[in-house]
Amino acid sequence: MGSAPSAAMTIPGASDLDPYALQPRGWEDLNAFAITVVDSRLYGSKFGTNVSAVMIAVGEARERGIAAGVALRSAYVVHDQLAWSTAYIVGLVKKSGLCEYIEIVETTAERAVVEYKKPRRPAKKFDFTIQEARDAGWVKAKSKWETNPRTMLRWAAFRECCRFEWPEVVSGVYSPDDIRDGAITDAEFEQTAADMSSAVVPS
User: Fold this and answer.
1) What is the pTM of this model?
2) For 94-106, how does the pLDDT look when each residue is reduced to its tens digit (9 = 90+)?
3) Domain limits, the chain
């Protein structure tokens, strides 16, 4: 009796497939692609009828070497601003070559601990607590932060660790939690209404 065919053998020409063959390759391609995405309604309310949001999400991801499909699965529009899943943020760090590993080593309903290592450096740990989430205003009634804190803490620990240790990789990449209240505030800078009103406008 012959051996069973391998998974690769069951798909004719699978080894010849180009994973980037159907990627948008220019502005017109991207516009047509975005229209198709919106018309398909396969991404639910993530983008609504906003063709431009799809184009920006895919364009930003491609700048970082990420395929369009991954961008669509990872991007969200929150208060008319682009947000990204934590899995996407962690993926950028892992893909960068600046991280040997990053993993959760402890998780409770009160805190999560990430262990990570950069090339040629000792391993370190980073923790994130439920009190920090409360202080940030993320823990709201009937939210996942209240009903499933362990999972939310794991994602928050991953995300905050990546921001702190790899800013050159994930700078400007925000999560839905960051902008859930409609404003983005970077940890190192907060622009107030007074700052904006006092800004000098060039003539």
Assistant:
1) 0.77
2) 999 999 999 999 9
3) 21-78, 87-179
